[in-house]
Amino acid sequence: MATSARSSRRGSATFEFLSGSVEETQALGERLGSLLRPGDVIALDGELGAGKTTLIQGIARGLGFDSDRVKSPTFVLMREYPGSVPLVHIDGYRLDGAPAAAWLDLDLIFSPEKITLIEWAERFEGLVPEDALSTRLEHVSTNRRRLLLTAAGRRSTELVNAMKAASPEKTDATTGD
Length: 177
Description:
Helix content is 26%, strand content 22%. The protein is an alpha/beta fold. The longest helix is centred in the first third of the chain and has 14 residues, at 22-35.
């Protein structure tokens, strides 16, 4: 996991979810998406195939977008989906760390009028807003994934708490100081 601005998230509100399928991951994303509002940033990290794009498809559906149109922008770096609240989807996989990411239009990416979702957010170290919701996805087994949402500020803590309230039976959620 990246350090600097994002390392301060330790000890914050957290929400853990174990998913046994693509459908469960997308359903979790859909619940999260229904809670998002302009200015929210979700920073996703995890190895290849961990489910970052799958989660983002669910988030898009929760925001009212056609999730079938949401594809990983690995080769184009960024896609913006217009709507009442535009959705910015970034894939930093091909970036060579924060210096390369800093060349992007960060004011556009982190606009208070848009919702921003960043795959491979560790490549944006020190550039992601403090109050972004950090989301780590990990392989548990072939079909199971562990998703850990970690909040750092007021808004991301609201999101974590709302996710806990919506899914108590599927989680092993904890809250730090």
